[in-house]
Amino acid sequence: MPTLAETADALVLTCRSSRLDAAAVEEARDHAIPSSGRIVVLDVQTVHNLVSGSLLPEEEPFVPLLNLRAALAAAGRRLVLAHVSAEVAEVLATTRLDRVLETAPDVAAAVTSADPPGYSHTQWAPLCLILYGFAIWTIGVYWFAPPFPGALIGMGLLAGLFALLGSAFQFLRVEDRGDRLDVRFGPLPLFRTTVRYVDIESVDVGRTLIIESWGVHLSVRGGWVWNLWGRDCVVVRHRRTTLRIGTDDSRNLARFLESKIAARPPLG
Questions:
Q1: Residue 109 has pLDDT above 50, yes or no
Q2: In a 3-state reduction of DSSP, which class is residue 39?
Q3: How far apart are CA 175 and CA 58, in angstroms?
Q4: 65 within 8 A of 92, measured Cβ to Cβ
């Protein structure tokens, strides 16, 4: 059975807090063997069982998982979870740090069964700031306008709606999920859709119309528009409808989807 050093190029420890300590991440990498391009994430108890606390001094803070997604993707590394504690699993579930792989009773099983996403891209945009601005403006209107019946409830609901949408439209994440493409806005998970690769008929790089704007809505050309910012998009035609995915990485996404179409076995 492979040892931990043979299956990982960095051992990233976890803690019970949500604070990222970049220095501790580098410390863990310095003590690991660069070989396979994998990062194994273990909880505190398993780390003590495997390495008896020798990897990092006890006074060093353990490294939480928050905000590591970008660093892992940039390094082309995969995230493998083994013996993940309930606390760590909760952090992963609430932050959607990466594709959460099933936990395994031993490191070797987790490493050999883990496949990284073939495509993952997150686009951030200031749309949420506009929505938050509307929420503040609504409160200001109520504060300075003459009172009228129902104003407090109406303005409060409207401000709450803008704030809720602002929390839901901070980023748009497009990610490979094995047999399907996952498209979702976040961090508040109000809007999410998936497209199975076997259902995709064609893929093109395109542009949204000015009147199609941003958000999630029907397109005047048929189908749906999921767009956070800008006008570049990938037009995905599948069995049910057409999905226009707004993205600042349109060419790479289109190439990835085309590779999925080409890899499908011929019908019949």
A1: no
A2: strand
A3: 37
A4: yes
Per-residue buried b or exposed e for 73-86, using 16+ beta carbons within 10 Å of the residue's own CB: beeebbbbbbbbbe
pLDDT at 267: 55
Quick check: 2 pLDDT over 80? no
Look at the pTM and tell me if it is higher than 0.85: no
Nearest-angstrom CA–CA distance, 159 and 152:
10
If you average pLDDT over each of 42-46, 52-56, 98-102, 253-257, which comes out highest?
253-257
pLDDT digits over 212-238, tens only? 888 999 999 999 999 999 999 999 999
pLDDT of residue 58 exceeding 50, the answer is: no
Question: Sheet holding 192-196: strands in order across?
Answer: 120-124, 171-176, 180-186, 192-196
Residue type, position 87, single letter: E
DSSP assignment of 135-203 equals HHHHHHHHHHSPP-TTHHHHHHHHHHHHHHHHHH-SEEEEEE-SSEEEEEEESS---EEEEEGGGEEEE
Q: Which of 112, 114, 41 is nearest to 82 (CA)?
A: 41
Give the whole-angstrom CA distance, residue 248 versus residue 229.
Answer: 8
- Helix or strand or coil: residue 70? helix
For strands 192-196 and 78-81, give the pairing.
unpaired
